[in-house]
Amino acid sequence: MIEYSIIGKHVPRVEAKPMVTGRLKYVNDITLPGMLYGKILRSPYAHAKILSIDTSKAERLPGVKAVITAKDTPMVKFALHAQYGIEDEVSLAIDKVLYVGDRVAAVAAIDEDTAEEALDLIKVEYEELPAVFDPEEAMKPDAPRIHDDVEGNIRHRILHTFGDVEKGFEESDYVREDRFKTPMVISCSLGTRCCVADFVRDTGELTIYSDSQVPYQGKPYLAYIIGMPVEKIRSIRPYLPGCFGSRISSDDVNIISALLSMKTGKPVKIEHSRDEFLRVIPSRHALIAEFKTGVKKDGTLVATQCRHITDNGAYTVFGIMNTLQNSDLLDLILRVPNVKFEGLVVYTNTRPGLGMRALMNNSFCSGFYSHLDMLARDVGMDVADFYLKNAHQKGDVTTSRCKLDSCGISECIQEVIKASDWKNKRGKLPKNRGLGLGLGAHTAGFQWGGETSTVVVIADYLGKVGILSGRGEYGQGSSTMICMCVAEELGLKLEDVSINEVVDDSIVPYESSNYGSRGTVGQGRAAIAAAQDLRRQLFEVVAEKFGAEVEDMEAKEGRIFVKQSPDKGMPFQEAVKAYQDAGKLLPLIGRGRYDPPSEEMDFYTGEGNVSVAWGFGAQVIEVEVDTDTGEVKVLNVVTANDCGKALNPLQLEGSSEGGILMGLGSALFEGVFHNERGEVIGTTFPTYGMPTSKEIPTNIKHIWVETMDPYGPYGAKGITEVVELPTANAIANAIYDAVGVRIREFPITPEKILDALKKARIRDKREYYETI
Questions:
Q1: What is the secondary structure of 565-589 as a DSSP string?
Q2: What is the dihedral angle through the alpha carbons of 256, 259, 261, 267, rounded to the nearest 10 degrees?
Q3: Strands (E), 163-300
Q4: 169-182 pLDDT tens trace
Q5: Segment 380-400, tens digit of pLDDT
Q6: How far is residue 397 CA from its own chain's centroid?
Q7: pTM, rounded to two decimals
Q8: CATH classification of 358-366+374-444+601-759, choosing from 1.20.1740.10, 3.30.450.70, 3.30.365.10, 3.40.50.720?
């Protein structure tokens, strides 16, 4: 066992103090000289033709500096996330709006009140068209066509098959079918989306102060959308006020603020209100999932299939990618010889979907592991034994070609079963209390076709070490992890190194993307490589000074010395000075890059090993159901996660608790719903359904299963998303265990539980009389 100085220790986040003291600056805090404020006029209709737009009154309003409509834009079609989307969207609606909240016009004024007043003065004449809000209704022959070039409103089909599913069902001793629905869930970060665009007419250059997760990847897309050379754009991203996937693409705040700044020659800031955020921000898609699974009498899985209907919304931002990722999940945890996944990505007249923590994997797992819990009960097996019998092991390759070079799902299940006393407590709890076992798996080092991570480490003339990383921090703990890796490799204390808070693409090295739990593997490995590069340069100087070989040197406890003769060495700062005195190139820089072995996913089958590492988790949750009110109280949570190597248990616990709370929210409270006109119902946190401190379980036990992934830094892999996945299905299974009703439509509200209990009582009474 390797002994580390920092790795594996409980380390507070490096930005914790500036965060809690208010020193950190967000995009929302930025104010530039002469800055104007932008607002966006949005459609009140779910589907309508635009007959005319009159902006004359708004333009004459004192304080208004610009009003733009589609004619003031390049009018090119684009995908907000071009790598995974379809070019079906425009900056401002040209001739038709496709959902309530679609962008129609925008203004820039001297203050927000004037901008809001100007919006009211813009007169738009519409011809309302029939709209459709349900993906199954949208696929019917008589449904209104949302995009003229797409028949049946089916934007994309994915079909993954392996083996012979129909033959597998024929050979099964028992086959079960279930259907589940989950609504759109919003990644409710503390900060709303915001952007400040600053166009300088003299130079033709645009600086974007953005809250995007993908400042490098998103810049060429933005350049295309607004009609600018990409080399004329500078992207600066301050610390993000929360994320969870809601900032995974460019957004209307980026596009419209840039267009308004280009028209006025002034900086323009656009910031969503909270109401606007909850009404229009793209988030995790709604899903309808139909499962069918066959098993032998002994519980051996034989065949499974899923018909997966993704509510794409009005435009294709992330609907295809979310569906592709779910195609992995049928056999990512469990071995199944015969698999079929059919994914349909369907347009509706609702807001587009996007990525959210764990993508749609959370919705999929909520249904699939509820379905399998019922299946295990049907064949008389303890679901834990059922899962262990069929679980993948290290070295397995799934039917979608996912390579499990580390896999601790069996250990995770065994740990939560033991820690929760599952075998003794299940079926023996007080009335209306129950236990549920939930599973989840997700990318833990996402690398679509070899995405690159780079890190630079610099030691200045005083020996102070600074790190430049394009990853940036938005709550996931990457900055602390990178600092830990660099400090470990250089033999320094954590407080001896610092890292950039702001990502400025004119200074900070390139980072492909920030999603898919790829930061730990990609940036961790790049950080280690950069630190080792700098360390090697110091080793060469110190080794020469003491007549030793480079391979004989060591960096530890703030010194660089000869391993076998520790007295032959010097403090790190003196080693840096020795490097400078030796006439070496300055500054002293270490460069690190990591290009992981990975594949692109097939766009039509979902096959391909798109993650260099895969994460696994299991949870046992105990609930109590009030049968008078239908309310569910989560009493105890035991969670085990395959983290590869626990780099920082303190950070892992924080991430895990956050994931559990988000999973609890989607299980019991959260969801976007529409009225008959397509308007969102619930545009405040209380009416949307955000769980509060009252709903947070206070008894959570965390267990870390260390499988030592061969690609991750020190064996670690990402857990930020997988920790959320088991929660909802564990809660659903626990509710059934407690009161004997199965809710197949999330969130599991008190009303649904009471209705199910009422129907169960009526059914039981009818069956009783039929037996008399």
A1: EEEEEEEHHHHHHHHHHTT--SSEE
A2: 30
A3: 174-182, 194-200, 205-210, 233-237, 268-271, 287-295
A4: 999 999 999 999 99
A5: 999 999 999 999 999 999 999
A6: 24
A7: 0.95
A8: 3.30.365.10
